[in-house]
Amino acid sequence: MVFAQNKTSQSDIIAGKNVTGRDDNSVNNNTYNLNAPIVYKSDVNLQKLIDAHEKEIESDPKYKEFTERLHQFLYKEVEGELRDLKQKLDDADREHLIFFAMDVKERVTKKIQKSSHYQSAQQIYTYLLSNIRVAFQHEVYGRIKSAKFESYEIDEIVTEKIVEPYLNSVEGCSLNIDKEEIYGLLYILTGNCYIQWD
């Protein structure tokens, strides 16, 4: 009885790594950089709105009215006694942010009003406000209500889940939305009772 031998013949082989006829027992050591920057997935819907805005700027129509949804975000009417932005932040032990919050909220509100003749700009700001609200409610507010997180941990979550992803998504847009404006949108939502910090 003749047994087939388990042999292979290899010659003139070029490969980037090991070439074997059977088991490869070599060890690969992979190194991961834990401090590497986080890469955020681009928001496709937001990119479409930005592209539409860039085209609209080229044609420059005079669009004068706020869309209804954006108007609701900026000028929400609430019955009863209201806390203003300052009081809301103070109640949430965030008094150190009051001056900053009021400043960025006012500046982004003025910028939205100034760019209101572009319907596409309104759509971008409406999209951002709507999605920041949803992200805050689902990613942040539960942690605030649990009272198990320190204030600085909530700040880190806001940066990671809201500020950085949306800042990344609007990069290159001619509206030049920066980090302070993203925070300004967050404080518009706070001031108009769409989100709470306590």
Largest sheet: none
Class per helix and strand makeup: mainly alpha
* Subunit arrangement of the protein: single chain
Any idea what the shape is? elongated
Mean pLDDT: 79
- Name the poorly predicted regions: none
Element string (H = helix, E = strand): HHHHHHH
Strand content: under 5%
The termini sit apart by: 83 Å
Number of strands: 0
- Total domain modules: 1
Q: What does the radius of gyration come to? A: 26 Å
What is the helix tally?
7
Helix content: 40-55%
How would you summarize what this structure contains?
The protein has 198 residues and is mostly helical. The chain is built from 7 helices and no strands. The radius of gyration is 26 Å and the shape is elongated.
Q: Which helices and strands appear, and what pairs or packs with what?
A:
Layout: H1 44-59, H2 68-74, H3 85-91, H4 98-114, H5 119-146, H6 151-169, H7 179-191
Helix pairs in contact: 1-5, 3-4, 4-7, 5-6, 5-7
Describe this structure in words.
With 198 residues, this protein is an all-alpha fold. The protein has one domain. The protein contains 7 helices and no strands. The chain has helices spanning 44-59, 68-74, 85-91, 98-114, 119-146, 151-169, 179-191. α1 runs antiparallel to α5 (119-146). The radius of gyration is 26 Å and the shape is elongated. 24% of the residues are buried. The mean pLDDT is 79.
List its salient traits.
about 200 residues; mainly alpha; 7 helices; about 0% strand; elongated
